Amino acid sequence: MQDQPILVIGSTGKTGSRIVKSLNEKGFSVREGSRSAAIPFDWDQPETWAPALSGVSAAYVSYFPDLAFPGAADKIKALSEVAAQCGVRKLVLLSGRGEAHAVACEEIVRNSGLAFTLVRAAWFAQNFSEGYLLPPVLDGMVALPAGDIKEPIVDVDDIADVAVAALTDARHDGELYEITGPRLLSFAEAAAEISAAAGIPVHYQPITLEQFHEGMLEIGGPLIADVFTEICRETLDGHNAYLTDGVQRALGREPRDFADFCQTVAASGVWRKAA
Ligand SMILES: NC(=O)c1ccc[n+]([C@@H]2O[C@H](COP(=O)([O-])OP(=O)(O)OC[C@H]3O[C@@H](n4cnc5c(N)ncnc54)[C@H](OP(=O)(O)O)[C@@H]3O)[C@@H](O)[C@H]2O)c1
């Protein structure tokens, strides 16, 4: 077992929190990477990067809010350089599924001179339980500009398991794993499965990109609205409606099904409406 800690950037987030828990359970030394960590890490304050990266063997890199935001590639490049200067052996990058901005960041990590694993992820199941779609689920109506396309919705537990393997086992060096769930689901089907498991009414409402943009403007302002609308335009057009074998290749097992995710979350009480 190595003595040097592993840095988990985004350690309080959906993927990062699971990676921290799993590494701790396996006995690895972990350094949490978030703005509230003991050694704070802030993407907007580059002076925090070297203290967070010093003395670590490897780093998990999940970018916030998304690799499609302006300046993301420059920050991934600068972070890779600081990591190299700090003697970090390996980076594990969480990426999208081939979007131009995400691929540009993958190429930066691939050419950083460090060992790397690239983890491409499909649309997260946990968007419905821990992300921005939890309030709409509780209100009974999930509205997305996704028409009737199908997505191989992935359980974040699987992404975390792949990242932990990549961070702790050099046999994953140089690999690109594209991680999907085992089944294609339309958002109407996903809503129906959540509804059945949670015992609450949940419906899916297809909306236009313009309607999505209008809603995001209210929540996050113009930049958030513009970038997330572009992400939806690029990703929710049906071209990702295929399964991949990333979980099988990395872990030698099948990915978790959306039905298991629904059962687990329903049992946790997260989808129970406050009285
Ligand atoms: N959702 C999806 O369906 C999907 C699919 C594929 C890929 N992805 C990618 O997943 C990534 C997000 O990962 P996630 O969902 O695991 O994270 P998340 O749940 O969105 O959590 C965000 C994390 O980033 C940290 N954070 C926020 N602002 C920060 C800042 N200025 N500096 C440093 N850390 C900051 C937060 O920590 P503190 O607030 O404590 O600082 C938290 O740990 C994005 O790059 C996204 O593109 C998402």
Automatic annotation (TrEMBL):
Residues 10-169 form the NAD(P)-binding domain. Pfam families: NAD_binding_10. It comes from the Bacteria. This is Putative nucleoside-diphosphate-sugar epimerase. It comes from Hoeflea phototrophica (strain DSM 17068 / NCIMB 14078 / DFL-43).
